[in-house]
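Worked example 3. Consider a protein that binds magnesium ion.
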Amino acid sequence: MIYKNCYVNFKLKEFFLKNNFKISRGSKSKIKTLEIKLTKNNTIGRGECVPYKRYDENLKKIIKILSKNRKIDNINNIKALSLRNAISNAYFDLALKKNKKKFSSILSSSKFKTAITIPMYNIKKFTKEVKKIKNIKTIKVKLDQKNVFNYLNIIKKVSPKSKIIIDANESWSISYLQINEKELKKYNILFIEQPVKSCDDQKIKSKLPLCADESFHLRKNIKNIKKIYKWVNIKPDKFGSETDILKSITFAKKNKLKIFFGCMVSSSLSIIPSLRFVKYCDMLDVDGPSFIKKDYKFGVKYKKDYLIYDKKFNYGYKC
Ligand SMILES: [Mg+2]
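Given these inputs, the predicted complex is written out as structure tokens:
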């Protein structure tokens, strides 16, 4: 779908989280997003922009771009990829409404199996969280180098049937990965997501299954990605428009890289539009809205490791 110019409006939104969401490089208790509204012929299309700090984006910069450009002629001129994604999603919504097409009609299901993420907690809280999701198919844990095996042992004991994804968010050293390779193999690990800094990719000499997240951005270092990683993490917010996302999906498929489709901590206004891409992906990580206290009306719900889509959500045509 080709973006054609529309008037852009935006509204600042704030979502408080149920718990502190901590990963190796920081923590947050709330998220601030922009609700993007595109208007054409009295129809409004919506999308959500969640600026990506890791890629040098912030709300101030994005508001500045939008304040200068109330009418965006070419979506490819927008450098901030999270904003490009939000506008693309809003435009998709507009097109569905214009063509009287329900969003549910392009989805294969209303139920999607997802990995469930446990951010960094102390041992007591972590154990409690694992118990809640005992033996689900895939648990994703955010870990730095501290107490890794204590956390893995808890999963092994409490939820032995679950596959484990470790997301280190670039916090491990090359030597830590190397020294612990043998020990890590004793656990039911599906893959380790971004163990080391993306600039250290070429130093990795590991046989463990790895997933590129921060390293798979703007398709830099493509040669290394194919050599080192078996999986790539595709998050719509870090790739941009629908065309950009589909290009990344095509790249992954061509290079036999498995696709782990992810999300930010965000509301249903980010997750629901992104569900149109899940049919191309091997594993989903779409639990972002489960961390916020109060989502949009008719937002997604979670039942164990399933995301449940409610077709009453305001996205696409409603009769
Ligand atoms: Mg990640």
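Take a moment to read the result before moving on. The two ends are 23 Å apart (CA to CA). The pocket of magnesium ion is lined by residues 167, 169, 193-194, 213, 233 (CB under 6 Å).
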